[in-house]
Write a structure and sequence with these properties.
- By secondary structure, this protein is an alpha/beta fold.
- The protein contains seven helices and twelve strands.
- The strands form three sheets. Strands 11-10-9-8-4-5-3-12 form an eight-stranded mixed beta sheet.
- α3 links the parallel β8 and β9.
- The two termini are about 50 Å apart.
């Protein structure tokens, strides 16, 4: 993509290019799965809350992490309020500064660095350069992450890209020797980086999604089997009813053997019109529901206890020193 636009009050040319030849060798970028989960959650919420449920809606936020030399680790993210002014995206800088100060109180030292910003969409656009100018005063070389919420079918790679903004002096006209500053997005290769706590959360979300796709819990499988059995019973009882009606009308010959089997089957049915039967049926039905609810509550309590145990183990391993340093800094 290569578009140009004249800047008001300036002679420089602004171009948005995604050239894979540039970039990718200057930084070692590591991305945590928590960032992708945060962006996907924000996009889903905003899409549901929008009146049109537009799948092309764009959300914005900030990337935070740590940068040491050439190594950049994007560990977390948070949402940023934005508005549309004259067809351009304008971030709420006051809100962004407030969030930065809050993050600095919670995150460990050096892990609250503003790395860049993110948005959702298919690719970088001209509007993203306007956002770059707004955040450049915080980080003069911010990274830009784009997550595609509608990836093409059959895509086997992560639907996201990370760019850095580069500026080069390029002549827009070969006959003109004047060089104009040109901005473009250079893609950067990245790798995934996970911690124990993140791995537990990702595995939990993945297992829940797989369970939903495979049909849910064992209770759901049991109810589906009962539904199929009741449907088959209803079909066969309907055939018997049609046969008896046809015999009564003289449309089919009378078969005493079949009629005796039908009579024997009807004798096995309980007297469903009595008051005692209704009372017993409701009692057993309520007891069954109570047992089902109790099993669901017990299973949920067990899962919460297991998750709390794993969380405590990971905090003891890697978060003890972090918590103490963060609390001492807060009270200072």
């Amino acid at each position: 993509m290569d578009t140009s636009d004249e800047n008001e009050g300036s002679s420089s040319v602004v171009r948005v290019m995604t050239d894979p030849i540039h970039g990718g060798d200057t930084l070692d970028v590591f991305l945590h799965p928590l960032v992708m989960m945060n962006i996907a959650d924000q996009f889903t919420r905003m899409r549901i809350l929008s009146s049109s449920h537009d799948s092309l809606i764009r959300v914005y936020g900030a990337l935070v992490g740590v940068k040491v030399g050439r190594r950049v680790e994007i560990a977390n993210s948070y949402e940023v309020v934005e508005t549309q002014v004259g067809g351009k995206t304008v971030l709420d800088i006051d809100y962004l500064n407030t969030k930065r100060s809050e993050v600095a109180k919670v995150f460990p030292p050096n892990w609250d660095t503003f790395i860049g910003w993110y948005t959702t969409g298919e690719e970088a656009s001209e509007d993203d350069l306007e956002v770059y100018r707004q955040v450049a005063h915080i980080n003069e070389n911010p990274l830009f992450l784009v997550l595609n919420p509608n990836p093409p079918a059959g895509m086997r790679e992560l639907p996201l890209s990370i760019y850095e903004v580069e500026t080069h002096l390029i002549s827009s006209d070969p006959s003109n020797a004047n060089l104009l500053p040109t901005h473009f997005f250079a893609p950067i290769t990245f790798r995934l980086e996970t911690e124990d706590s993140e791995r537990i959360a990702v595995e939990h979300v993945a297992s829940s999604s797989m369970a939903d796709e495979e049909g849910g819990s064992k209770a759901t499988e049991h109810l589906e089997a009962m539904r199929s059995a009741i449907r088959m019973l209803h079909s066969r009882v309907s055939r018997l009813q049609q046969y008896l009606s046809a015999v009564e009308k003289g449309e089919l010959p009378r078969d005493e053997g079949i009629l005796r089997q039908v009579h024997s089957l009807c004798n096995q049915l309980p007297a469903i019109d009595t008051e005692d039967f209704r009372t017993n049926l409701l009692t057993e039905y309520n007891d069954t529901l109570l047992v089902t609810y109790l099993a669901a509550i017990t299973k949920g309590t067990s899962q919460i206890d297991s998750l709390a145990t794993k969380f405590s183990v990971t905090q003891d391993r890697s978060g003890g020193s972090t918590a103490s340093s963060g609390s001492s800094r807060h009270f200072e």
